[in-house]
Amino acid sequence: MPIAIQAGLWGLLSGSALLLGAMIGWFVPLSRRIIAAIMAFGAGVLISALSFELIDEAWRQGGFAPVAGGFLAGALVYTLANYWLSHRGARHRKRSHEKTRGEQAEKHPDNGAALAMGALLDGIPESIVIGVSLLQGAGVGLVAVIAVFLSNIPEGLSSAAGMKAEGKKAVGVFALWAAIALASGASAAIGYLAFDGVAPEGVAFVQAVAAGAILAMIVDTMVPEAFEGTHDFAGLIAVSGFLSAFALSRIA
Q: For the whole model, what pTM was predicted?
């Protein structure tokens, strides 16, 4: 099987967790505290993955300059795009609180496109990382796939619960997350094809860009939901997620 197709399938697998999380968030009556706790755990998992699977690997390949430049560039691009989307009704796309989502729906009743673009913005960097990991020739970065899968569940769960609170229809919500899952697969394949043959410094830069975007996404969208629901326990739960992913990276 061509490696690009393998990358696409791995990306699709990790992206499918968004749809799984959305189904749980829509049909299973979970309290806001539980949803926030799952979000905090997912944030810790992602921080661990970008620390040990992305930044560390990028530094070994390209050195400090490409990593620093890419890391800041990824955070800047994400922040600007997120700022634009936030003013079009996607500010609270990972929040599950009914009042918060209801207020967002009142201000931006036609925010479906913004929510879809926000979901893409959050998911594409993670998927590209999966495709780029196959460039090493040693198989997919399994820890990265697992970390993205685990973090996508609370993202889909919280977002779908929030969309339900906004009054969105189930068909539209599940169609959105199914499309994002497919886009995740496509992004992983593109990540492999676009950077196959690129110098190690270039690959390191791309990995750092993705890491910067992911960290900015965690702080801007996941941490607020986690803290609002769990307050004093958010840090402890996030540390548990970080430790779980770290242990997995050392065992794998």
A: 0.84
Cβ neighbours of 2 (radius 10 Å): 10
- pLDDT tens profile 43-90: 999 899 888 878 988 898 889 999 999 999 999 999 999 888 887 776
Overall residue count recorded for the chain in this entry: 252
Exposure of 116 in the CB half-sphere (CA atoms within 13 A): 14
In this prediction, residues 191-207 reach a mean pLDDT of 87
DSSP-assigned letters across all residues of the chain: --HHHHHHHHHHHHHHHHHHHHHHHHHS---HHHHHHHHHHHHHHHHHHIIIIIIHHHHHHH-HHHHHHHHHHHHHHHHHHHHHHIIIIITTTT---HHHHHHHHHH-TT-HHHHHHHHHHHHHHHHHHHHHHGGGSS---HHHHHHHHHHHHHHHHHHHHHHHHHT--HHHHHHHHHHHHHHHHHHHHHHHHHHTT--HHHHHHHHHHHHHHHHHHIIIIIHHHHHHHHGGGHHHHHHHHHHHHHHHHHH-
Give the residue among 185, 215, 140, 197 at the shortest CA–CA distance from 19.
Answer: 185
